[in-house]
Design the sequence.
């Protein structure tokens, strides 16, 4: 699944809006901050 530009992810009262389009990603929340981690590494992408 692709993460598109200007998507808002919300956990409880915390939220974050993406600024650019990304490939597959994981969002996690530790009750203080939302963390975004791409699932693909730069070396995984063929050009």
Sequence:
């Amino acid at each position: 699944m692709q993460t598109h530009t200007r998507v808002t992810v919300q956990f409880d009262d915390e939220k974050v809006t993406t600024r650019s389009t990304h490939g597959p990603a994981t969002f996690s929340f530790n009750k203080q901050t939302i963390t975004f981690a791409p699932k693909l590494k730069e070396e995984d992408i063929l050009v």
Observations:
- The chain is about 0% helix and 40% strand.
